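User: Could you walk me through two proteins back to back? I'd like the raw sequence and the structure tokens for each, with a short line separating them so I can tell where one ends and the next begins.

Assistant: Of course. Protein one, sequence then structure:
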Amino acid sequence: MPKPVQWSSELDNALSDLLTRRRVSLRAAERALGVSRSVLAKRAYAIGARETAPGAERGMITSAPLPPGHPKTWGAICEGLSGQQPDYPLPVFL
């Protein structure tokens, strides 16, 4: 279990320097400071060293999901099938 960290202005400055000036990843900052990435990400967001909150990119999807069986997802649907991939079943209007 990680040891608890007493945040100080020195740690904040070091974290800000690593992320903004040196442009290192959170993984590299984790190794340099000895604190977990999740704690670093939350602290970096709190002090303004990162533009977005961790995981905010996932919430930025603006389009609706594709319906089941959509032509764009046909390859993923048939991926596990053995043999030749079947053609996409185009709708038949009678």
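----
Protein two, same layout:
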Amino acid sequence: MKFIALFAFCMLPAVAQAALFTCAVTRRTDSKAEYAAERIAKEQLTVLLSVDDNEDQNPLNDKASISACDVTGAEGKTCDTYEVDKIVYDDATKLKKYYNFFAQVDLQVWPDMSFVLNDGRSGISYGSCKVSEE
């Protein structure tokens, strides 16, 4: 009976792992100016990176999306979300780069969890991320 239970457990499909990176923006610049710390805090600027493991043993083939979020008075929290077209790992710098080619958005995350987001519209955001398993 134990063998049958073990066999049945082993035959269950593997559950894909998903991770959500919540990245707090601490500095932001665009073509006009650098954002004041008060504005960043008021707008609650955050970047979300969702990564879904596709279980093929190559993390560069995972599915991912990038969301740039802020809070405005009338609309509340809004996010612009971009599906990631390509993930690249740079051996020299030990960072992962996530690209959406159409919107020209790219996100770079270092091993210490610091990040840089180029939003494709002359804006650059910096800060650090935390990971939570979904």
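Helices lie at 2-11, 37-43.

Let me know if you want the two compared in more detail.
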